[in-house]
Amino acid sequence: MSESSAQRTVRDLPALFSSARWAIRLAWSTNRGLLVGMSVVVLSRGLVPAALAITARGLVNAAVVVTRSDVPGAGPLVPWLLLGFLLTAIEGITSLTQKLFMQRLRDDLNYRVTLDILNHAATLGVAPYEDPRVQDILERAQQAPGERLARFVSDALGCASGALQIVSLLAVLIFIEPLILLVAILFALPYLRFHWRLALQQYELERGRTTKRRWSHYFVSTLSGRSTVGEVTILNLAPLLIERFRSLMVEFREQDQHLYRRSFRGGAVFVVATTAAMYAVFLRVVMRAVGGHLTLGDVAVFGGATTRLRNTLESFVLSVSSVLEQTLHVSHVIEFLSIVPTKPAGAGIRPAASARAELVFENVSFTYPGSKGAAVDGVSLHIRAGETVALVGENGAGKTTLVKLIAGLYEPSAGRILFDGIDLRDLSRAHLYEQIAFVFQDFGRYEASAGDNIAYGDWGRLLGDAERIKDVATLAGVHGLIGSLPRGYETPVGRLFGETDLSGGEWQKLAVARAFARSASLLILDEPTSNLDARAEYNLFRRFQELAKGRTTVIVSHRFSTVSMADRILLLDRGRIVESGSHDELLAREGNYAQLYALHQRRMGDASY
């Protein structure tokens, strides 16, 4: 670890203490009874080694008295034997108790912090996840957060217990030979500094791997994912992806092994040096006993207690470095939970009047994080309540970005969007989402029953109501499809947990039905027929006017058979609206829309388009 990194960490000590306090408060609020119980058990164990050393001294001295006495009998040994038995039993029972408490606290903390992360993630909306930096923050926060919090608590208590053991053992040993204090200080402090720096290096190494960790996850999911394995097989990409995964793993392994070797060398030096120094002091104690200045009990207890002291010093140093490392990892959870949502839950205006879904764009622009060019650039637009508007344009023209801005999934970088005259920034997100039915281009394929896949559109009203779900399915034209499944509406669909999968078009039909399940004033369809064949598309749009009646509708599509039915068509190019009008009006202008239509007509080879 570089000196500059060490200096930076020293500067950040207040942040480390802040993270530690946060972790302790979280553990206290999660299960204070377990935390108090663990503290009592761990601190009690800290006094046992010194008590055992004193007991051993008393037992040896009592044995010497008995052997020199003219009156035989083990009476003087009994109290010391009983005390030794009691202390040994206490040490064993408290060890088991500490393990039990630790397991329970780990489970409670894992449950609590995972829920906190998921609940916070649900408040952030879509935009933050477009930023790779946020993906890295989330990746770090999800690395066994409950386990790390529990280890922090355990190691922090272990530090307290170790410190208590060291102080109590030193108190016993100093009484016999004060020189032991100098030996403990001279060797423990450098070893502590060594492991402190090693822990910082391990942390910085792991933090720097975050993006590469995400790449390794990506390679695994691509090689084994159901949606990619076919293409990977045909293109024979497996050797390439496996080699890239292997190179990352080799890099991680070599870096880790370097740290392991450093830790081993440092530990070996500490063990040899402290053992030699303590044996030198022990020799001095033996010589003093031979000279009659100390008892055999002193020699016995010093020999045993110095060994225990060396082990305790090593454990204490490792616990301190582990506390540092876990505190740094706890800061990852805090970092993620500190990401400010675009709008706090429950905040914003909830209009009393029924929504009409009139939309007004006022010079709206939006740029994705890290992108140089605007995806939507200075758009001004008025969509009347109940109007059907279609967005067309080449890939990358900004169509999907525009509808996500309408849905409040992104916030404009400049300008504003009005929903029924209210700026979307001021509108309650919960209220806005209640007014929107959205069929996404990457629509959800939920591992659930076919009926639930529809009910999710308005799960608070429909989930568990078979008749209402059937009504929606009939209206959307998917009742026959569901009826053909092995268990009808109760058929689990998807290959992860069920045995029945659907085609892309069938999944899209369920997604459309799910959108129509919501009694929303605004309907957004992003490529709603991309997976449907011509007959299925015709059947859907035969019902379209009835399904969209009374709703403001925005359609994104490349299919002119779809967009031609819209009241108004907007042609986008590089994030700007370049043409606007009905299908017939735009064809009559013989502009860009007419050219795209002619190209589409030739490609389809069907005059009906």
Give a short synopsis of this structure:
The chain is of the alpha/beta class and 609 residues long. It has 22 helices and twelve strands. The two termini are 67 Å apart.
Summarize the SSE layout with pairings.
Layout: H1 3-11, H2 13-68, H3 78-123, H4 132-141, H5 145-176, H6 179-208, H7 210-224, H8 229-235, H9 238-290, H10 296-337, E1 359-366, E2 376-383, E3 388-392, H11 399-406, E4 414-419, E5 422-423, H12 429-434, E6 436-439, E7 448-449, H13 450-455, H14 459-462, H15 466-476, H16 479-483, E8 492-493, H17 504-516, E9 522-526, H18 534-542, H19 544-547, E10 552-556, H20 560-563, E11 568-573, E12 576-581, H21 583-589, H22 592-604
Parallel strand pairs: 3-10, 3-11, 6-9, 9-10
Antiparallel strand pairs: 1-2, 1-4, 4-5, 7-8, 11-12
Commentary on this structure:
With 609 residues, the chain is α/β, with parallel strands linked by helices. It has a domain at 21-337: ABC transporter transmembrane region fold (Up-down Bundle). Helix content is 64%, strand content 10%. It has helices at 3-11, 13-68, 78-123, 132-141, 145-176, 179-208, 210-224, 229-235, 238-290, 296-337, 399-406, 429-434, 450-455, 459-462, 466-476, 479-483, 504-516, 534-542, 544-547, 560-563, 583-589, 592-604; strands spanning 359-366, 376-383, 388-392, 414-419, 422-423, 436-439, 448-449, 492-493, 522-526, 552-556, 568-573, 576-581. Helix 6 runs antiparallel to helix 9 and helix 6 runs parallel beside helix 10.
